[in-house]
Amino acid sequence: MVEGNGFSELSVNRSPQELSQLHWLRRFGWSLWGPIGIDTLDGRPDDEYDTYLLHAASMFKRNLPKVKAVEYFVWAESVYMGMGKSPSIRIRAEATVLAICDYLDQE
Q1: Sequence-separated (6 or more) residues with CB below 8 Å from residue 84
Q2: Which DSSP symbol is given to 102?
Q3: What is the pLDDT of residue 69?
Q4: pTM of the predicted model, to two decimals?
């Protein structure tokens, strides 16, 4: 479990390998956000987006608006990672935010 982000108390009724909230955050990060575009490669670094995903999820735990998390993902990709603003950047950020919010609402 990841400690210090308010997630160690998350518990959902899922199969054993899906119990980890980090598993789900990673799933959303790789399948929906994927700013570096290597989601289909074997041997990818599973933890590549953990810092961003955990930060965004902690924003929801602090009741910050979803738009702030969308803006965070857009900033992380375009500025921090230096990838620039692709045509799909906001759509992918919004999809990721909605998936994380839906997941957290099920807890």
Answers
A1: 78
A2: H
A3: 97
A4: 0.78
